[in-house]
Amino acid sequence: MGNINAQYNITSETVSRICSGDIVAYEEFVRNYWETSVRTCWLILRNVHDAEEAAQDAFVNLYKFRGQLKNPNKFRIWFYQILLNAARQHQRKRSNTSFVPETELLDPTDEIEQTDTRIAIREAIRSLNEPEKIALILCYFCGLTDREASIVTGWSLGTYKWRLTKARHQIAKRLQYSDPTLKINL
Question: 17 and 59: one domain?
């Protein structure tokens, strides 16, 4: 769903064009990855306006620093680093202002059990510390490998795996507490 290389096939030619300043390739990339990028930032920030601003900042920084990418094969990791940094920067800015949480939007096609499960999972994720939440997002939403996620976050591989495991256990524990009949397989 959110995996940049899988969702839209980014070829090394496209990456080279973006890095060389080809505005058409850059615009196409922005169009193709805008929604995925906003969604990734939203998972971290939980505010659509902040997520859109963070994604916009990430795309501006991608273009501004496009010449710094040394290995086109590392484009995905590099882009997620930029995206994560933009989201973190917006989070730091936001900590100095008041925050009103968004209203829970429910899918009208969901069954009641699906809605209850979705709400329980969102609440469980919201209860995580920031590092554990980021580890989950990079693994399950972005589809990064453990090694890629550790590079994106700047954590050692062992630290990333520890935080991901900790997040899985915390979510499983919280979900089991909220609904003992829920089957959890993380």
Answer: yes
Sign of CA dihedral 55, 61, 63, 66: negative
Domain ranges, residue 139? 111-186
* CA–CA distance, 153 with 85 (Å, rounded to integer): 9
> Which of 98, 130, 148 delimits the end of a domain?
98
Instruction: Give tens-digit pLDDT for 97-108.
Output: 544 444 444 455
Q: Which residues contact 137 (CB under 8 A, 6 or more apart)?
A: 40, 43, 44
- In a 13 Å sphere around the CA of 78, the CA atoms on its Cβ side amount to 17
Q: For 29-184, where are the E strands, in sequence order?
A: none
The model's pLDDT over 17-27, given as tens digits with 9 standing for 90+, comes to 999 999 999 99
CA distance 35 to 20: 24
Residue 54 · residue 87 · CB < 8 Å: yes
Q: Which two tokens stand for residue 98?
A: 């008041």
Number of domains in the chain: 2
pLDDT of residue 186: 52
